[in-house]
Write a structure and sequence with these properties.
319 residues, alpha+beta, Phosphorylase Kinase, domain 1, Aminoglycoside 3'-phosphotransferase, Chain: A, domain 2, three-stranded antiparallel β-sheet, 9 helices, 15% strand, binds adenosine-5'-diphosphate, binds the ligand N[C@@H](CCOP(=O)(O)O)C(=O)O, Kinase-like_dom_sf
């Protein structure tokens, strides 16, 4: 359960009193997620999400995320609104953390998406990309390619996570440095569109959530992140061709990638696999013992890295 910080009931009542959202009926920690503390807040007016921002979200960057969600909502993308209090403020403080009250969206986050759901996710990602082409905000991707060496270093001894992992990561970083593409189409991207960040009812996307890694980067890298997280078996060893083709088909329905982007996809997916391998390895080593959080296993992303490094990896991106 991702609750790093508890909320005192009196502090919560005082916070809610600033809003026109009724009074608190309950506030329960949410089991999913690893980054922030999330609570399902029920008031006399309905359901909301209360998020307290933790380790990887800087409070001074929250206005960027508020603007981003506002821009996407205005373009009809199914993202949650950050609720504003009576003074117009969306960003608050509680329990020593920056916090927001967020619109609750319907839907279920999937653990085993079907091909049809992958297709819907690919199309939703592409529509988000189209909507972000004219977004004026920008943010350095501090979880992106230029930062992977420092994330690896900050993780510490990677061999304590998996024997030999340190040498594998060093070799991969060198390979990516020698081959990382330049000049691909870029704008702000989601950068973490895993199935648990997409809410669905049947085959329909009802919500895209958790934009806190959103940053300026290649749109094809975002597609690679989504490919890596939606189309593999849970151990990361097998990419399901039907799900992969459906994801690519859904994306292609909305956006035609350039030849350079298509050619770069296997490499970008290697990068995406390394990124999640590294942050999971970091958290494996550093998650505080008392935190109510289930650490995520890094090894399925090592398996994906191997799959995307195989000579036939381009086949995984056929629509
Ligand atoms: N706006 C929302 N509407 C409905 N459920 C949400 C919303 N935001 C978060 N959740 C629920 O909370 C869980 C954790 O949220 P998430 O943003 O993924 O956490 P983290 O910030 O730790 O990555 C989600 O899997 C989902 O079940
Ligand atoms: N999606 C990433 C890290 C963030 O996870 P989330 O559940 O908080 O969205 C991973 O799976 O490693």
């Amino acid at each position: 359960m991702a609750v790093y910080t508890e909320v005192d009931p009196d502090d919560l009542a005082a916070l809610i009193a600033r809003y026109d959202i009724g009074t608190v009926r309950s506030c329960k920690g949410i089991a999913e997620g690893v980054e922030n503390s999330n609570f399902l807040l029920e008031t006399t007016n309905g359901r909301f999400i209360l998020t307290l921002y933790e380790k990887r979200v800087r409070a001074d960057e929250l206005p960027f995320f508020v603007d981003l969600l506002g821009h996407l909502a205005a373009k009809g993308c199914p993202v949650p609104a950050m609720i504003r209090d009576r003074s117009g403020a969306a960003i608050q403080q509680i329990s020593g953390r920056a916090a927001c009250i967020i619109q609750f969206l319907p839907g279920i986050s999937l653990t085993r998406p079907s091909a049809a759901q992958c297709e819907a996710a690919g199309a939703a990602l592409a529509r988000t990309h189209r909507a972000l082409e004219d977004f004026a905000g920008a943010r350095e991707n501090n979880m992106g390619y230029r930062h992977w060496r420092e994330i690896a270093k900050a993780a510490g001894d990677l061999d304590t996570v998996l024997p030999g992992l340190g040498a594998i990561v060093d070799a991969e970083l060198d390979y990516l440095d020698a081959h990382w593409p330049s000049g691909l189409p870029s704008h702000v991207i989601h950068a973490d569109l895993f199935p648990d960040n997409v809410l669905m009812l049947g085959d329909e996307v009802t919500g895209l959530i958790d934009f806190y890694f959103a940053a300026s980067d290649y749109r094809a890298y975002d597609l690679a992140v989504t490919h890596a997280s939606w189309t593999f078996s849970s151990d990361g060893k097998r990419c399901d061709p039907a799900r992969a083709a459906a994801l690519m088909r859904g994306y292609a329905r909305e956006i035609a990638l350039t030849g350079e982007e298509i050619a770069a996809l296997p490499l970008l997916a290697r990068g995406a696999s390394l990124r999640f391998l590294l942050t999971r390895a970091h958290d494996w080593i550093h998650t505080p013992a008392g935190a109510l959080v289930t650490r995520k296993d890094p090894s399925p992303f090592l398996a994906r890295l191997r799959r995307y490094s195989a000579p036939d990896a381009m086949d995984l991106f056929a629509a």
